[in-house]
Amino acid sequence: MLTTTPSERIIDYGKLGERMTEYLIAFLNTNGGALLFGVADDGKVQAMDLPEKQRDKIKLVLDSCIRNFQITPVPKANTDYKIEFVRTVNNPERFVIVLEVKQSRFFHFAHIRKALASWERLNASNFYLCDRPQRFIERIRELRDEELKLGEEFGTIMDGYLTLLFCDREVFVSERVCMRCGQDKKIFRYEQWCALDGKGR
Q1: What pTM did the predictor assign?
Q2: Domain boundaries defined on the chain
Q3: Strand-pair category, 110-112 with 94-101
Q4: Which of 24, 114, 178, 186 keeps 20 to 30 A from 125, CA to CA?
């Protein structure tokens, strides 16, 4: 959970958006969950003064992050996630922000500061998956088993995954060689993916 102090009045929307994006992807990629803003780690409700204008702004920030960070596949509001503002019992003018996320059957990632990023939940923390490329391989192999259920949507999603996985210099050089020979680089990428072992090599 994230904590905020009762004295806070100014919201850093940029940091808030990035933090919500990180947790949104982590929850989507694992077992779902809820992120609470305004509740301390010990469970004490601190809440925040949030006029209607600020509440609307926070919703727009999350929507903008999903769009600007190009979260792939795109999660759907009120289906994959929802954001609510819960009034406190003792002071109805103060709110706790609740970002509730359902587990997705897809594997989601984003583009943040021109870099690809994704997370999973591990031991009550967000685990940065870009440090474990083999985990990407595992998730994509899981997705491949769902190919028949996804239909046409599978091709678009798979293109994004392949771009995520095969972005090292060696593969790009090999792609150029294939293109000079008239071969499709997407086919090359797919064949390289199928040839990987369980450790993503």
Answers
A1: 0.70
A2: 13-130, 132-194
A3: unpaired
A4: 114
Tokens of 49: 């003064």
Query: Using CA atoms, how far apart are residues 20 and 40, in angstroms rounded to an integer?
Result: 17
Q: How far, CA to CA in Å, does 64 sit from each of 14, 16, 30, 36?
A: 10, 12, 23, 20
Q: Which residues contact 19 (CB under 8 A, 6 or more apart)?
A: 2
- Joined tokens for residue 163: 């771009």
Residue 48 tokens read as 């925040």
CATH code of the domain occupying 13-130: 3.30.950.30
Return the residue matching tokens 């929802």: 82
Backbone angles phi, psi at 196, to 5 degrees: -70, 150
Separation of alpha carbons 143 and 150, rounded Å: 9
Task: Decide: 143 and 157 in contact? Cβ < 8 Å.
Answer: yes
